Structures are given as structure tokens and as C-alpha cells.
Amino acid sequence: MNKKSLLRGLAAVTTLLALALAGPAPASDEPIRIGAFVSATGPASFLGDPELKTLEMYVERINEQGGVLGRPLHLVHYDDGGSASEARNFANRLLRRDRVDVLIGGSTTGTTLAAVPLAQRARTPMISMAGALTIVEPVNPWVFKTPQSDRMAAERVLADMQDRGITRIGLISGTDGFGRSGREQTLEVAEQFGIEVVADQTYGPQDTDMTSQLTRIRTTEGVEAVFNFGFGQGPAIVTRNYAHLDIDLPLYQSHGVASDRFLDLAGSAAEGVRLPASALLVPDALPDEDPQKPVVQGYKQAYEARWNTSVSTFGGYAYDALHLAVHAIEQAGSTDPKAIREALESIQGFVGVTGVFSMAPEDHNGLEPESFRLLEVRDGGWVLIH
Fold it and tell me: What pTM, to 2 d.p., does this model score?
């Protein structure tokens, strides 16, 4: 080896030694990876589409403002089409291949529950945007959620019925995960409000007419009101069939239809329908002292300006999931999964779009039934009742 080659070799060794001593590149150069699986297409697209739009918009905004801990956010997302098996596959990919720091999803109860064991096994914090109580009860150390539970929705509806002197009701619900869980919760808590469920009917996700079920409810002696627990097109069909049958009883829906899309699908048949919903649907009706008012107004204005379409309660669940994750990462001061998990569990008084979140080791939802606002459809729009 000549002298010049020897010098080059020594220089290379010196460079490698220096890099080895310096260790890996600074963490601040690496993005914080937010993984999401949503139902952006398929039968639950009315949930997943606004959720994905919200995540994309606010990841961009947060990065424009300097990121989190001085690091940019990187959103890795997949569309599960509402399929539980696809959700499981994509959650596995996000955790094993993409190595995300936080997992957000799914849009539905079924897609969420398909991914829960994977998040638990990977020991990665997961924040669901689905409603069923079974997602967080019993408590899974690694799983949280942003929507109010189906039990809270049932309690809010039943409390209003109680105020109106209603004691005997008909219940109709979807057989999907959301509807099934909502039915179970309603049956479980009805007695606490002095209400008896005297008719109990169900419909499938593909059903296009619920006239027979509603007829059986109408002909049941003593029915004073009807409560439908479902999401997607089913509740709109129930509402139209209800009007066609000219049933002269109060009709309640669950928070599964809390968006303008329900008004479009149900049309004039929705007049008088009551349901529990996020403050997001009536932001300007909130009193000025309500801590949620500036949050929901800001989200509504930003979303509608960016996407040129009406804001949706379901997008609000994604807003809360992302901002809770960011808040926890900032509180933890790192992306260590255990530290993020512990920070999520200790969040208190966090004002979101859906409500004011106060988590605890025994409560990974952090919301009260009062976070629901009771709305009624009047003249084709939403009106705040209380």
C-alpha cells in the first residue's frame, strides 16, 4: 500500500470511529410517527372520511407551528374500508413495519376491537374513535377512546324521556357492533330511569326497510316513545319508515347519526327527532362562558374552510385523538410508549371538541354523560334543547 492509500484508509477509520463515538443521529431529526387506520371508504365512510381529513389537516398545522418536541409529525394511514380483518392487518403493519409511536383508530367498534390485542401486545398507546363501552371496559392499559360511550348516550336519552314522563318504550337497534352494544347498554340502564323496554326489535346492516319491526313496536301495548340505536343508513331508513307509518310518538336516535349527513338522508322525516350529540353541531348556541365554545368554533371554521364541506361530529373524534396524543407526548417529553401511556392516563381538564377530558387509571375515556348536548331537529337543522 502506498503512502497516499494509507492516509486515505486512516482517514476513513478515523471518520467511522468518530461516528461510532457520536452514536445515532439526534432524535430531533426523526419524525414522530402517528399511525392511523380509518374507514375512509365503504359503509362507514361517513365516519372515516372526516376523521382522515381532520388528521391530515392538523398534522400539517402542527408541523407548520414547529412540530412536537421540536420534531415533525409524520402521519402513516391506511383505509380499512370498514372491514375488521383489514383493520387488523393494517394495525399490524403500522405497529410492526411502520413502527409508529401512537396508534389512532378505528372508526367503528368492530375495527377497533380487531386491533386492540395487537396494540396491547406491542405495548403501544392506541386511541380509538369508536363509541362502544367495551373498548375501554374493562380497562386495557394501552387503549383509550375519544367518543362518549354508548352507555352515556343511552343515559342521556333515557334522562330526557324521564323528564318528559315517558315510562314505556320501544327499542330498535342495528345488529352491528355499535348497535348491539348500544342495545345492551340501554337495556341495562333503563330501569335506573324508571323506564321499561316493552318492545325490542333489530335490523341488519344491509336491511333497506324496517317497516315490519316498527309496526310490531307500534302495536305493542303502552309504547310511549321509540329509541333507535344504530349508525350509517339504517337510522335514516328507520326515520323515513317511522314517518311513513305516521307513528305519533317521540323518536330518539343515538349519537351514531350526529352529522348533517343524517339530515340529508332522512329529509323532512327527521323533524322532531331528538338525539345526544357533540357541541360541535351547535357551536354558536353555546354560552360564551362554555370552555368548549372557542375550540368547537375554531375546528368548525378550519375544517369547512379547508375541505368545503360541513363539519362532522366524527371528525371531532379524530381532532381529540390527535391532540390528546400530542398533549401526552409533550407531557412525557419523549416518544417512549410507557411514558406516553402514563401521560394519557393522567390528563385532566383537557378541552376538546367532544368534551372536557379527565382520564384516570380506571377511566380511559375521561368524559361524563353531560358532555353530550341534547339536540332536536327543527326546520331541517339542529336545535340545542339542553
Answer: 0.85
